[in-house]
Amino acid sequence: MGDRPADIGVYGLGTMGANLALNIAEKGFRVAVFNRTVEKGFALRDDNPGIGDNVVPASTLKEFVASLKSPRLVLFMVPAGKIVDAEIAEVAPLLSPGDVMIDAGNADFNDTVRRSRDVEGTGLNFVGMGVSGGELGARHGPSIMVGGAKDTYPQLEPILTKIAAKYEGAPCVAWLGPDGAGHFVKTIHNGIEYADMQMIAEIYGIMRDGMGMQADAMAAIFGEWNKGGLSSYLIEITAVNLAEKDPETGKPLVDLIVDEAGQKGTGRWAVIEAQKLGVGATTIEAAVSARGVSSRRSERAEASRFYAGIATEAADFSAEAAGIAELEQALETAKIIAYAQGYATMASASEEFGWNLPLGTIAEIWRAGCIIRSQFLDDIAGAYETGGVVNLLQSPAFIGRVEAGQTALRKVVAKASMAGIPVPALSAALAYFDDYRRARGTTNLTQAQRDLFGAHTFHRLDRDGVFHHRWPAV
Ligand SMILES: NC(=O)C1=CN([C@@H]2O[C@H](COP(=O)(O)OP(=O)(O)OC[C@H]3O[C@@H](n4cnc5c(N)ncnc54)[C@H](OP(=O)(O)O)[C@@H]3O)[C@@H](O)[C@H]2O)C=CC1
Ligand SMILES: O=C(CO)[C@H](O)[C@H](O)COP(=O)(O)O
Predict the structure, then answer these.
(1) Does ligand 2 have an atom closer than 6 angstroms to the CB of 198?
(2) Boundaries of CATH 1.20.5.320 in the chain?
(3) Whose Cα sits closest to atom 11 in ligand 2?
(4) Each residue of 98-127: pLDDT tens digit?
(5) pTM, two decimal places
(6) From ligand 2's centre to the CA of 236, what distance in Å?
(7) 40-50 pLDDT, tens per residue?
């Protein structure tokens, strides 16, 4: 077994790459590993007795590639952008026709499309593959969203189905479409992740600033919510986050963490693509923007001094069971709206790029392994299985739930606004819903303005054709 060539190579042994390599090795495959800091590959083998027998570290890239069986599978797990391009440029000359390069990191799908085109005619294959689940997911079972040429997928499938998370026994991995489809879907996954996290943070803000609740009490509520309709990984970890104490001070750790959110770009990519496609992904946009605002901490501190005297109403939230249930229902309703926006973005991209994305399958492979995994995704999968989904907000699976929950969302947004508690994502969800559900909007006036200042023309309700009006001179 010692000299048996490796089934796959992983280049990049950070949090994700190292854990994915161990996951692959544990499933009985031999995995060659290489890293900029070369020693990490050897440490991965030596520090993992048993599993390490299947880990084949290399000192040079040439040695790494030479240790792979043919056709070779080389998986990159490094930060997005130029690093991926640099690694492709290094590795591609060492490969042969039929070999496959896989970018398993997060990537701007436009880069993935470009890289797929770049290998055309070389005999090499390029796969853009989204992997979600963080460190533990990579180690024990992530959700995997595969793009690229369909005929390349069977080469990866035996390994991917073994290492992926399982939902009721079904592996959470699928080929979703050509070139950038896999990375696009991962990008929307992350956009939804941003929205989910922001909305949870807003509810936390209401509990903390509007209800005066302490972290322990909030942890208990999120723990309870995790047994109901909101049951999900993100709600589960929120309860853990809130319950955790700082070992040095004994205080809730969350109270000591600086309120500046980081971001690596995937949420922003989701919003940019939604905008390009003309889809209103407003809840995701609000979540991305909220991270941006959060990062301007000293500026916010200054602004808080200027507006310290502003008169807001006393928060009208109740910590009684009914008040907590109202928050829960508001969050559930806004969540449906946020997911509807994410799915609308994928549906639009599918049409625009001719991908034929299997939207139901996407919900299925998100049910386990990934950061947004939840019971709720099973309902989305069910809606697509029934068929005829134009938008999740028009699906019989959700109409009743949104109808029943919208009052709670409305009340929570209204009360938070009056109390001066920011709820940008929750209010964006509500505004989108109200805009989406009205047959007669207000952009007739926008069209009139555009026609007045720029002769942009408009359509009329009472007759066909394109019209320009000679508006009075202003
Ligand atoms: N962390 C997470 O939860 C998730 C991350 N991802 C994505 O996975 C990818 C990897 O992320 P993660 O493992 O967290 O990142 P880490 O920061 O933990 O690891 C980065 C890896 O990239 C290597 N690297 C960094 N810069 C260079 C460079 N200039 N040239 C060559 N190698 C370089 C590092 O090598 P060295 O050891 O020498 O520094 C290391 O192996 C990213 O695209 C990320 O967005 C996807 C899902 C979840
Ligand atoms: O892809 C992921 C999960 O699905 C990563 O955890 C990603 O890094 C999260 O994004 P950000 O760092 O921007 O919060």
Answers:
(1) no
(2) 443-474
(3) 263
(4) 999 999 999 999 999 999 999 999 999 999
(5) 0.97
(6) 17
(7) 999 999 999 99
Residues known to be catalytic:
186, 193
Q: Give, in degrees to the nearest 5, the angle at Cα 197 between 134 and 406.
A: 140
Q: Is the pLDDT of residue 1 over 60?
A: no
Domain(s) labelled CATH 3.40.50.720 in the chain stretch across 8-179
- Ligand 2 atom closest to the Cα of residue 190 is 4
Q: Spell out the CATH class of 8-179.
A: alpha beta
CATH 1.10.1040.10 in the chain, residue ranges: 187-436
Residue 15: nearest ligand to its CA? 1
What is the reported pLDDT for 292? Answer: 98
Q: Is the CB of 173 under 6 A from ligand 1?
A: no
Q: Which ligand is nearest to the CA of 12?
A: 1
CATH number of 187-436: 1.10.1040.10
Q: How many angstroms separate the CA atoms of 289 and 282, rounded? A: 10
Ligand 2 centre distance from Cα of residue 342 (Å)? 16
For ligand 1, the distance from its centroid to the CA atom of residue 323, given in whole angstroms, is 43
Ligand 1 pocket member 17 (CB < 6 A): yes
- Fold of domain 443-474: 1.20.5
With a 6 Å cutoff on the Cβ, whether 131 touches ligand 1 is yes
249 contacts 256 by C-beta, under 8 angstroms: yes
User: How many Å apart are CA 200 and CA 196, to the nearest integer?
Assistant: 6
Residue 264 CA, closest ligand 2 atom number: 13
- The answer, yes or no, to whether any atom of ligand 2 lies below 6 A from the CB of 264, is yes
Residue 442 beta carbon below 6 angstroms from any ligand 1 atom: no
Sequence-distant (≥ 6) Cβ neighbours of residue 441 within 8 angstroms: 435
ipTM over 0.90: yes
Probe target for ligand 2 pocket from 135, 266, 272, with the most ligand atoms within 8 Å of CB: 266
